[in-house]
Model the fold of this input.
Amino acid sequence: MAALARSWATKPGIGRVALLFWFGLAILPLVGSVWDSPSFDYYLFMGQSMLIYAISVLGLNLLIGFNGQISLGHSAFFAVGAYTAAILMNFGGIPYWATLPVAAVVCFGAGFMFGFPALKLEGHYLALATFTLAIAVPQLLKHKSIAGWTGGVGGLLLDKPDPPFGLPLSADQWLYYLCLAVAMLLFWIVFNMLRGRSGRALMAIRDHAMAAGTMGIDTALYKTVAFGISAGITGVAGALSAITIAYVAPDSFTLQLSISFLVGLVVGGIASLPGCMIGGAFIVVVQNSSQSISDWMKETFSLRYDVPAWAIYGTLLLLLMFFLPNGIAGGVVAVRGWLARKFR
Amino acid sequence: MIRRRTALLSAASLTIAGKARAQKKYAPGITDTEIKIGQTMPYSGNASAYGVAGRNQAAYFRMINEAGGINGRKIVLISLDDGYSPPKTMELARQLVERDQVAFLFYPLGTQTNTAIQKYMNQKKVPHLFLATGASKWGDPKNFPWTMGWQPDYHTECKIFAKHMIANIKDPKIAILRQNDDMGNDYIGGFREGLGAGWEKMVVADATYEVTDPTIDSQILQLKNSGATVFMNITTPKFAAQAIKKVAEIGWKPIHYLVSVAASVGAVMRPAGIENGQGIVTAQFAKDVTDPRWATSPDYIEWKAFMDKWNPTANQLEGSNVSSYIVVHALVQVLKQCGDDLSRENIMRQAANIKDLEIPLLLPGIKVNTSPTNFYPLRTEQLARFEGDHWTLFGDLISADGT
Amino acid sequence: MEFFVQQIASGLTSGAIYACVALGLVMIYVSTDHINFAQGEMAMFATYLAWSMIDAGVPYWVAFGSTILVAFFSGLFIQRVILKPLETAPVLALVVCFIALLSIFNALAGMIWSFTIKQFPSPFPRVDIFGNGLVSAQQIGVVAVTLVMLAILTVFFRYTTLGLAMRAAAQNAASARLMGVRVSWMLALGWGLASGIGAIAGMLVAPIVFLDPNMMTGILVYGFAGALVGGIANPMGAVAGGFIVGVLENLVGSYIIGNELKLSFALIMVVGVLLLKPAGIFGRVIVRRV
Done:
């Protein structure tokens, strides 16, 4: 796992591939001007969701993949980010783009605070403590003492922003670019962080906390800050989600969301930055394709019952873990290694 | 060579279609032979028990299609699972409207989920018809001319209960159990309005629970301990069954009011124990198919035949199989009224132009009415009491405006 | 006062439910060193099997017994077929497998038996022990069965060779293997037992909360809380933790913070206990050699 991380984070030449990849993502919306289809905006919306999930997985990966602290509670930080943005836009009249840094700071604070008890918890214990956090947050959001701010069970409706400066873009194109820009910025920050001293420290703590401590790394500080940054990144994703969906409600941030992040992380590849992008896309694509597979099965085999999409989703996950226990990115690395050995 | 012929052929068919289109107006998703409809349903997640409705409607459309469709057009229902999660509903609504090109959304389920997409549907000017939620905010044609609710709203229903309590119970001491979500909120709003100034004096206990709570025993004990003589039970089916059973077990004997969403005989009253449910009061707009007095009525027989043939695996005691059946009739009426002008504008216009429509399995005397200013198709209910193994109606029809 | 006693009695019943589920979790944890997120759904599925048998006219206890057997062998099967090939995979890959199993069981149950709630018969007579609706035979029964299971498990893990071998296999596979323990089969056995315990828990819980595919979701959360509070490596602690969570949740909900914050209270309790005693109230801190 560690070797994998190093190969992705520090290998020279990878930068060119990454640049090409981001460039590809950036020109994607322009396809719309050639291919005039009413469903194009929908695909852009899907693209926004994928980028938002990718950012969330990035935040989670920083914590789990690079620092070894397991969290099942990141839906909570996602929710805090989303509500921060929604409340600021709704009551503060603050423009949507300005809510992103605020969400980052608020969630950093929340994550940092939660990082303290997390210091004492390891492995399974931390996983379960954060699990309860994910369960408790929707309930807290609708509590009557703050319902005036959060909109209670009804949530808050927002206005979907239009492109600024009279840019000739549709609202979805603009939001796609917003998500893309934020994603690029965050990936760049994390990439640089991991490449440097602090990244090595984080991974050293993951691999052997005690040894890291004896080498003079302030493990407590690094771990709490890692928790904070991780939560901050996921919080930004939450804020973006509030902006693109234009609605926040307690039911949007259930444990299911945390589980999606985790599944995206593992399927994409633990401790892999490209894996975060793969994971983000996986979360969006696979749930939808499970439904399509279910429809296809029903039609092809003329079944009397619907094959439930979630059973197909589960089976897909099992198969993936079976053949690619290190995730898709891990699989790619393995295949590349195999090819290199074969054709040396 | 072959390729050119296909090209010619398709060009020919295009001109024919073009001509046809000159006389007929079609929304996206509608052709001479097909009407494509979208829907979101919680087939998974906490609210998955409601998924029954979508399956039953799919079965009904199969039956209609077999019989030649509506004005010669077959209905294609694309019903997708949103897991009761608002962002997912948003994604699916956009998929249905933009990618799958459905003509409109029909009977999407849930309050938060529909709130998430209401603005979008109205911006896109796509009909958002007959929502499967009893929130009172759906009948707002001024601000949301493309959204129309369906069932009598929760607000009104609880107001009816409150009025009934004040009129019939001397010095009521009321205990409330409610689900901590938008349904519970809407119900309680109506209840508060119905009690008016009496709220402070009459309500002695008000307990909430979460859908994730394993049991509600503790809450029931709190309510009993308050010394209440009336129990207003605002719950969803599973918790309603738990509450009815627990109330009986601890020997509490309040006058028990149960909201209509949880008044299903098959999904609530039977599992809770028939003997425990005696005397509970609810409100209904549809016939209770377990009530023997309807056994010989033609609409019941027709429904039963449909269920037996087209949806044989369904549990016929389940209330959703009746309510989803009723609303389909309203849609069929709207589409028939549209004739060949199946533009989105006209679909909405016809939906707002239903006059005294009688639908099978609605209680006698209840008719569906809409107008450009009235986006509440159903506003009338009647109280019923659980006697033996079925609900027995009593009193007059009560509608939202009057009492 | 009567209200107070009632709340405690009701808390003990819910506590027994949490304790049952927690026992299954501990079982898997002790014997395989994993936390099985699919535990609840497996129990739910087993309960549906029992329901189907009873519905088809099989006597209650026959259905009860055969369900436990079926659950045991399915647990064994799942470990051998699905999890064994992943023995060397990262822990998180296993967590994803558990999530996958959870989705599959939940969706299949919904497809086969629908999401409508079903009544599940109780093996205990419907009598009111003190004649005031305070404690029913069902409640006493659940508590009793939980305690009996606990006793059996404690004896099994402490005093039988097989139990010791299972614990050894989980804690230090390499050493255990050197001692002649068939580690892989011990893990499978652990899964089988946990699955059987889960089935019992499901069948005890179902008469109280009604049977539906989402029956165990909420309970599992509190089961986790109970296991964490008491100590997840210790059956006795987990059962005690389950009871503590059940009772405190009721009392705090009724007297102090209101029902809206019960879950949040459980969260605070878990974090609080873990901070003060990371291995749980009754857990022993395992000192690891570096």
Remarks:
- Chain C is about 75% helix and 0% strand.
- The mean pLDDT of chain C is 85.
